[in-house]
Amino acid sequence: MSAAGWPQLDMAEQRKIRVLVAKPGLDGHDRGAKVIARALRDAGMEVIYTGIRQTPQMITEAAIQEDVDAILMSILSGAHMAIFPKVMELLRENGVDDVLVMAGGIIPDEDIPAIEAMGIQGNFGPGTPMSAIIEYVRAHVHSDRLSQQLAPMSTAGTAIETPGTGDAAGQAAQ
Amino acid sequence: MAATTYLPIVERLLAGDRRALARVVTLIENNAPDTRRILAQLHAHGGRAHVVGFTGSPGAGKSTLVTATARELRKRGQRVGIVAIDPSSPFTGGAILGDRIRMMELAGDPNVFIRSMASRGSLGGLAVATRDVVRALDAGGFDTIIIETVGAGQAEVEIVRAAQTVVVVTVPGMGDDIQAIKAGILEIADVFVVNKADRPGADQTAAELRMLMSLDERRKERGWRVPIVKTSAASGEGVPELVDKLAEHIAWLRESGQLASRSGRQARSEMLALLHQALLAKIEATVSPDEWQQLIDEVVDRQRDPYTAADEIARRIGLAPSLGGWE
Fold it and tell me: Is residue A55 in some structural domain?
């Protein structure tokens, strides 16, 4: 509690943005991931760092358990076109539809349209200023997640896969 | 119809939905508007889990030991929840939560749920919301819930208010025996672990702890001899013995009636904390920031002392006359 001001300042504080920084694939070079984790921390975010050699299953499971607002995958090995689709598929299967998914590392320009089509944003290459990444996270995290309301998952995970029209038709028939 | 209508998110949590559990934890951490209703409903479904706290200095190997302990508990068929707390930066409020790095091998197990928490300015080794997060995991049906505290020094003893069994983790070569007889963290141990026992000096550390324990009259009266377990978390050595001791301790707590009195103390401190919050909220609603600042300035300028300034605020919220002893 600060010397001046409200005794309850703590509670009035802004909701913290939680970011999962993950290193998928087999390369062990995590200097970049650690530098970014540190920069996000210094920007006031809570960063869950998973360590190297994460499988898509591990990333998805961590994102669910930690209920993160954003996932940032750092990849240097060139395996992104194998790993990213799997991560996105698992997230979708588990009904995780309100999380900002970003990537960074070495990603050739020609792959970027395909990656963006998967719903992965950012694609921060070498030399991206930290401030750009921080601003990107702040601007793109789903705003309803950050409202204090945090509407407790009105869209259930499983409901997304069932086509809405079919359901409605089924109910109308009864 | 039914006696209780549960909130949808509570229903999903009780049915074992991990996303619902994770979201409830987020709501708790952020003190979101619905949290109290959710917690009130969850409370009725708790009380089954064994809550174990692991504390000790940074680098003692807590995360690795927690992982090894969870793995052993899984072998014994238990579902395990883990709450791992790391410090928030006092400057930016940000945090790097790195406990999952050591817990990687538990990552694929659907019967393990790991949640990292930042301490968010709390100084006792836990986060403010830790007990409520444990309440959510308890309702979620986990048999053992492990709380890993912030790497603690000598006085971070909040864990006793959240756990039923406190494991204090130490390592060889952490200082002479005077370090160990200082008050604080050593007094709260229900089980001692000398981790990294493959290192030189482990036997000596264990012997020093044993001697200290033998001198402790207060503990003898209570009837639980604090065991000292040597482990090497990295290799898994000693971990089954540790898990045996945890089971023995909770069994002893139940038989001796200590569990009920511990729960009573914890409920009491929890209610006091809530009342404290309510009081602060009442003050916030009654006294404007300007008035508050003015009182602070007057105290700083020595026109007023902090006692009469606090009296003034208490009077404003209608407390002073009934408290007695004022002026």
Answer: yes
